[in-house]
Amino acid sequence: MPKQVITGERHWYAIHTYSGYEDNVARNLKQRIESLGFEDKIFNVLVPKEKKIRIKGGKRETIEEKIFAGYVLVEMIVDDASWYVVRNTPNVTGFIGAGTTPTPLAQAEVDNLLKRMGVEEPKYKIDVAVGDRVKVTDGPFKDFDGKIAEIDPEKGRVKVLVTIFGRETPVELDFLQIKKL
């Protein structure tokens, strides 16, 4: 880490990893911090994730989805030794910053991210968009075809335009009551 200004202040930094190895990097880094005695320089290792509800095979399941694939956040005091510990963790490709100088994340960004991760209500994850053709699979309009007019991911509901007696009629349904054509 050439020409690094050592401030002695603790900040959050983003490190780039190979995509799909974020949890592995976080686990390895935590082990390295403990075994090398860097608890006083590297305080927190975090893989940003949020809970989402995915509908698969007609069933709801809550999943944790990475917010930033390929990145891990580290709260640390940067000096040559702590930089070396993080940088030489397996599957870490480098710090985010100019050249070899890590750039700290703005505290507002970190606070926003931590708040987003702490949200209790999981969001719905569905693979349809406004304008898609769907088939109603449950309820009084079962087996009707329609077109999605609105999606409310917070409530897990969609408004579908179903043709009844030659007229399009808006019907509000749960995500579980439709299937993409």
Automatic annotation (TrEMBL):
Top-level taxon of origin: Bacteria
Alphabetized PROSITE patterns for the sequence: NUSG
NusG-like N-terminal domain location: 9-117
InterPro entries: KOW, NGN, NGN-like_dom, NGN_dom_sf, NusG-like, Rib_uL2_dom2, Transcrpt_antiterm_NusG, Transcrpt_antiterm_NusG_bac_CS
GO biological process terms on file: DNA-templated transcription elongation; DNA-templated transcription termination; regulation of DNA-templated transcription elongation; transcription antitermination
Keywords: Transcription, Transcription antitermination, Transcription regulation, Transcription termination
Annotated Pfam families: KOW, NusG
Domain (KOW): residue spans on this chain: 127-154
SMART domains: KOW (SM00739), NGN (SM00738)
Listed GO CC annotations: cytosol
Role this protein plays: Participates in transcription elongation, termination and antitermination.
HAMAP family: NusG (MF_00948)
Family designation: Belongs to the NusG family.
NCBIfam families xref list: nusG (TIGR00922)
Name of the protein in question: Transcription termination/antitermination protein NusG
Species of provenance: Candidatus Yanofskybacteria bacterium GW2011_GWA1_48_10
Lineage: Bacteria, Candidatus Yanofskyibacteriota
Designated gene of the protein: nusG
